[in-house]
Amino acid sequence: MEKVYTAPDNIKNDYNLFIKWCLQNNIKEVGHAVAPLASSKLRCKPVNIEEFSKKLFENGSELDGSSFSTGGGRVVHRSMVMAKPDSEGRWFVLPDEIRKSTLFIMSDMESPQGSAMCARKPLADSVRYLENSLDRLIKAAGGEKRLPIERYALTVGYEKEFFIVPKDQSSRTDIKYLGQTITGGPGPINQNLRGVYLTIPKRDEEALLSDIVTDLAKLGITAVQKHLEVGQTGNEIRGRQCEIVLKYSDAITATDNDLIARQIIEDACDRHGFKALFGSKPFTDDTEGEGINGSGKHTNLSLGRYNLASKEFTENFFESKLFYPSAAGENISLIGIAMLAAMGRKWQVLDASISSRGNDQRRRPGFEAPVYLSAFIGNTSEFRDSLAQDRNRSVSIGISGDKLEWRTPGANTPMYYPLAFLSLAIAEVLDEITLNIEASKKSSKTIQEAIDLEYARLRQETDYFVVSEDVYELSQQEAEERFRCKVPKNTPDALKIFDEQEKIDFLIKSGIFTEEMVKAFKMVQLETYVQRVIAEAMVLSDMAKALGNKTFQSSIMKMNVLELNDMDPRLEQRKKNLGKLNAELLICADSSYIDGEESEDKTKAKDLSGLVRRIKNINNAEEAACVITEDLLQAMYKTRKIYEKMVDLMGGSEEVAKL
Q1: CA–CA separation, 621 vs 554, rounded Å?
Q2: Is the Cβ–Cβ distance between 537 and 612 less than 8 Å?
Q3: What percentage of the chain reaches a pLDDT higher than 90?
Q4: pLDDT tens per residue, range 4-27
Q5: DSSP assignment letter at 378
Q6: What is the biggest distance separating any 2 CA atoms in the chain, rounded to whole angstroms?
């Protein structure tokens, strides 16, 4: 019997049929898969099929609480958080040989009162809220009525970028513990069609990408494209950047697929002798937070009419004749301009929703986008023409005639909350348009005249951040002046927006989010950021200590003696330079490594180890973040620069790696 990887809908509400299907497909474990707030990976704790009762099937499973001893016995504190199965979600088996007997059930986390405890349920509620706004607008504009088997949906298609490195290179401390490289290397090759996108992958790369596409198809997830990307990991490891483009679907399904696809990519890489990295990659000669070669999760968005029976979109509202302005030369409907206006009005909230340590490193001038709020509006043919000339990487929002591309989310960004926030922002603009159309109709204007008025109003509103020129080379100050907004330098700064009541009222008035939920989201994001930077600093400190070790240094010098004559003055100069850099590096990593009495340099040094100890003793995440942004990031940058100079002096990363 051919292996089946997705459970059919008819068994999702019948326990007996479910168990029968599991036994027929050799399912030995079942678990509720959930999507936590700050994670881009699914979480699941499967149980043996014999233990998966009817109660667990119908009501979900209680997530673990904690237990503690009481002098001979134990007391279990119940978590009171339930993972409740979603009968409309995907129930699936991952097509990896090791995981083939485990069934994962897409589920939502809820409190006993039904409050959302995960990121998935708020998105489902927000999309329904947006659907109601669309319903009112289409009725006001005299559009076709929605059929019983139809719904209005936010359509989403993800472009997933990731690095692949050979397994024999993945034992490096930073790759092993952080899933990315944190020391520098050369910048990327030029972003051009011939040099990157039309390059035929090597046989091992092609085999990996084909395997990923095949595994996705087994779960009913279509990858419409696979190719190499522009990024390189540098000379220190032999890595390349790849991209898998997932076919669009409704927001919930697409975002579920995004998380599932990540696990499939990681499993396939492991089988093919690679390790998948979704993090950012620093380059040399750049200031902290700039020039970072990171992977993106470019998010393509539209609004459309969705047929529940065929599970296909039958109309794209970006191209709908109903909402097209009568002015010549326009290539997008009122709905598309409304989405752009929504992102413009709420860009600070949306920016905060995708902020993370990794995204801070890649959303800077000279890389992905000089600021958050810049957009290019062009029709499909113009986009195609521009590809041959200049891909205009400076825009953070790109609009063709049929979709909007949100470029700033990073590969590690969980998209449930960002899409929920965006849905409510769009709904607010659509409701405003509906009221204005109704008012225009009362004043004897035709619907087309009303649509033209609304289009002109919103097009003028968004005009200041719509670009046709190349803004790639703008400095951050120039970009902020050009686009009338000051971009937060890091996640802690971005998250402060959730302290401004007027900025988050549109989330709360929907009834989907409470003020407590918004504050909780902020603190989860902030605490995740703090822990991530601490981990980076600890790893960088350890790498610096290893590089500065005298035995290690001696091995380097022995290698150099073989290459240079002892009388060669270049060798003596190299030794001096290396010794000076080595002492400086050890002070940066941990001043306790320097021998002798307290020196001025030692007492003044903000070494990584000392700063990490200080931050760990701070219980408040906001205070910890303050020390990170004021002291630790600068200390990390300085340490990384010295580390990279030493590596270069020693003959490059490949020579260091051999030792």
Answers
A1: 42
A2: yes
A3: 52
A4: 999 999 999 999 999 999 999 999
A5: -
A6: 96
